[in-house]
Amino acid sequence: MNRIVYFLLIVLLMSCSSSEPRRPINPRPSTTVFEQTVDQAKKIRALEEQNIEAFIQADSTNTYISSEQGFWYYYNKKIEADSNMPQVGDTIQFSYNIMSLRDSIIYDENTLGTQTYVVDKQDFLTGVQRGVKLMKVGETMTFIFPSSVAFGTAGDGDQIGVYQTIKSKITLLNIK
Q1: pLDDT value of position 153
Q2: Is the pTM for the entire model greater than 0.90?
Q3: How far apart are CA 70 and CA 90, in angstroms?
């Protein structure tokens, strides 16, 4: 009986002692991985821009405009008359497609359907969000969106790959 009491007493004393927390193997986070990721992203972006510039130079039928928002575009149908352009909070309707840089249709207008979008109040492709604000009702424009303002590093999980540059032909149908 004494042995059992001593055993229980020892177990009780050992369980009351404080345990020291485990320390991480590498106590300071390394910036090396972050710096490598940033460097890789810069290289990919530079290569993507070179490909876009080469594509634009080879396309003698269209006059591309470089936007400050990080994409290029040209007018398929331009409205010369003064008219409103979408503003923050406006509800717009537009149709669009998504193509590869070499004009292969990835998603056609019928598949994507007419979109209703509240400008800068809803989530949508960054390039499209910025591009529609340059348009007037009735205009059709073709945009080249680098991956950074399109589907980025993830693609769409289906037909658009990682870091893929896309083209999109957009027609602004209505502003409310």
Answers
A1: 82
A2: no
A3: 23
